[in-house]
Amino acid sequence: MPLTPHPTMLAPAEAYALWAASYPAHAHNPVMQAEERAMLGLLPATLHGQAVLDAGCGSGRYMLHALQRRAARVTGVDLSPEMLEHARAELDGHGYDAEVELRQGNLLELPVADGWADLTVCGLVIGHLEQLEPPLAELHRVTRPGGMVLCSDVHPIGHALGWLRDFKADGQRYAARHTAHLYGQWHAACAALGLQIERVVEPMLDPADIPADAHFDRTALAVPVALVFQLRRTL
C-alpha cells in the first residue's frame, strides 16, 4: 500500500481490466505476502480429493496453492475477463492431475451449484463490495455443510490510514474502489448466516519483504495489514 498522490479511483471491473496485464500470479507486495502467509497457515496441508472454489480468483494464485495441495477439482470465478485470461495462461503451464475450470461471475451471484465446494477461498476481494453480508451469503451457499471458508481482506486500520488498492498502468496511477468492513460487521454477518468463526488472524508486515528503496507509510510496520478468517459452514 504505497503512498500515492491522488490516483484515479475506479470501479473494480475497470481497475482490473487495466491492472491484469501487470498482475502476477503470486503475492507481489509486502501486504499480499503477509496476507498469503496467514491464509496458507490456515489452509489444510492436504486437499486430496477435495473440491476447491476460489471466489474472486484474479490471476489464480490460490488456485495454484490448492493444486499443489492435491485438490481434485478447482474452480476459479472472477468478475474480470482480463484477469481470467491471465489466470488461464498461468494455470496452463502447470500439469496437475485435477479438474480445473475458470468462470466469469461475481461474488453476489457465483456460477457454482449449492454446496459444491469442500473449501471456498476468497482472498482480498470482499472489500471491493460495499455490503458484507450478501457476498458472505454466496460463499456460504456454495460451500457444503461442514465445509471451510477462508476469507481475507485489507485490514480496516489500513483504510482508516488512507491506504489504497493502487497500481500503475500506462504511466498513470489508479486505485480500485474498496470498502472497509469492521470485525464487528464480520461477526454479525457470520452469526446471521450460519458461518462459525473458527480463527481470526491479523498478520503484520515482515520488514524483510520491504524493498530498501520503497516509499511507504512507516505506520504500516506497527499495525496489522490484513484481516483473515477461517470460517465453517454450520447450517
What does this structure look like?
The chain is α/β, with parallel strands linked by helices. The chain has one domain (8-233): 3-Layer(aba) Sandwich (Rossmann fold), CATH 3.40.50. The chain has 7 helices and 10 strands. The strands form 2 sheets. Strands 4-3-2-5-6-10-9 form a 7-stranded mixed β-sheet, with helices on both faces. A 3-stranded mixed β-sheet has the order 1-8-7, covered by helices on one side. The longest helix has 13 residues, at 30-42. The chain is globular. The N and C termini lie far apart (37 Å).
Quick overview of this protein structure:
The chain has 7 helices and 10 strands.
What's the topology here?
Blueprint: E1 8-10, H1 12-19, H2 30-42, E2 51-55, H3 61-68, E3 73-78, H4 81-92, E4 99-104, E5 117-123, H5 133-142, E6 143-154, H6 156-160, E7 165-169, E8 172-176, H7 183-193, E9 195-201, E10 226-233
Parallel strand pairs: 1-8, 2-3, 2-5, 3-4, 5-6
Antiparallel strand pairs: 6-10, 7-8, 9-10
Helix pairs in contact: 5-7
